[in-house]
């Protein structure tokens, strides 16, 4: 039996499973999925879990079941392509014929002193649960700082405003205007929502140090009761520690087939791959579609195409609480209730397709 091993049960590897199971997996191939949890977590919704507006059950779906799918729960210590093994934290080793690395990312603190020790995270479902507990326990009038005004920071700040109207929320943005790289219409809409809902956006910020209950922004000190860090990501440690070519933040360089150039039995999907796109669930799923096609050709001993189709992303959708949102689709800006309904529809469809 050929052995396909999937590291991480995120969006990319869930799409691999969806395309192969139940009826498209060759009879001589078995799959081992390795993940720290026994279910797929919808990372794009962790902001709602942390804010307390979604339950744990709402942000996860079960992995599929199949007689030739084995699920291993545990932490990964090392990935060794030259040896063809994955080393688990408990010392066990998993061998493979083909490997898909989809382990996702963790926070990148950019060397800011105290950031890793004194801030909360929404990068994993476990971290998001702990962040929820910390925010839930804050008294009325407490100050919450959200460092980073990308999509995660915006959604967390807005959702937290609806969950805890009694809190003071400060959103720290390095840019002069929120969502600087997108049309001003979108930026203005989001900025006005924050203003009308009394979320303070601190533009041109630069967090240089974090202490317990204190943020340093440039030369200013800002008292805070809790801080959530959403200001950058990097691949997880086992990926950064691999002996393979990577970019400046540790993402693995891949060829057009999403393989490591020196180890073509190893594929990389999602946040761990060095691609000219911002990391997203949509990107991981598009990669996974192509990886499945390559795997099926390989298993059938058929030649790979000279070129792979260009990945084309459709844009993104963000929420501002449960009633408003913003989207950038096909170079068009959509704001308000329609954008929020679009996001709700996408989430519903995702859950439906994934069981």
TrEMBL record:
One of its GO terms (molecular function) is NAD(P)H dehydrogenase (quinone) activity. SUPFAM superfamilies: FAD/NAD(P)-binding domain. GO terms for biological process: aerobic electron transport chain. The keyword Flavoprotein applies. InterPro entries: FAD/NAD-bd_sf, FAD/NAD-binding_dom, NADH-Q_oxidoreductase. The keyword Oxidoreductase applies. Its cofactor is FAD. Residues 3-282 form the FAD/NAD(P)-binding domain. Gene3D superfamilies: 3.50.50.100. Keywords: FAD, Flavoprotein, Oxidoreductase. Belongs to the NADH dehydrogenase family. This is FAD-dependent oxidoreductase. It comes from Planococcus lenghuensis.
């Amino acid at each position: 039996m050929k052995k396909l091993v999937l590291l991480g049960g995120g969006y990319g590897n869930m799409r691999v499973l969806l395309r192969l199971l139940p009826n498209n997996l060759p009879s001589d191939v078995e799959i081992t999925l390795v993940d720290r949890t026994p279910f797929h977590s919808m990372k794009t919704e962790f902001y709602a879990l942390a804010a307390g507006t979604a339950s744990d059950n709402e942000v996860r779906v079960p992995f599929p079941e199949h007689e030739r799918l084995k699920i291993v729960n545990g932490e990964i210590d090392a990935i060794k392509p030259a040896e063809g093994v994955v080393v688990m934290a408990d010392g066990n080793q998993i061998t493979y014929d083909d490997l898909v690395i989809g382990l996702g990312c963790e926070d990148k603190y950019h060397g800011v002193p105290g950031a890793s020790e004194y801030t909360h995270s929404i990068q994993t479902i476990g971290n998001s649960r702990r962040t929820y507990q910390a925010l839930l326990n804050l008294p009325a009038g407490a100050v919450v700082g959200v460092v980073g005004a990308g999509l995660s920071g915006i959604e967390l700040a807005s959702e937290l405003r609806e969950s805890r109207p009694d809190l003071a929320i400060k959103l720290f943005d390095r840019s002069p205007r929120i969502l600087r790289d997108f049309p001003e219409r979108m930026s203005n809409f989001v900025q006005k929502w924050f203003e009308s809902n009394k979320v303070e956006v601190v533009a041109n910020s630069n967090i240089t140090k974090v202490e317990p209950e204190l943020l340093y922004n440039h030369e200013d000190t800002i008292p805070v009761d809790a801080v959530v860090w959403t200001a950058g990501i990097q691949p997880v440690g086992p990926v950064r520690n691999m002996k393979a070519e990577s970019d400046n933040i540790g993402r693995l360089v891949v060829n057009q087939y999403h393989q490591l150039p020196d180890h073509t039995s190893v594929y990389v999907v999602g946040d761990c791959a060095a691609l000219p796109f911002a990391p997203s669930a949509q990107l991981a799923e598009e990669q996974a579609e192509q990886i499945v096609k390559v795997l099926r050709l390989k298993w059938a001993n058929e030649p790979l195409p000279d070129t792979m189709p260009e990945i084309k992303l459709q844009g993104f959708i963000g929420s501002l609480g449960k009633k408003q949102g913003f989207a950038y689709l096909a170079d068009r800006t959509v704001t308000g209730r329609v954008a929020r309904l679009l996001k709700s529809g996408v989430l519903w469809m995702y859950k439906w397709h994934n069981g």
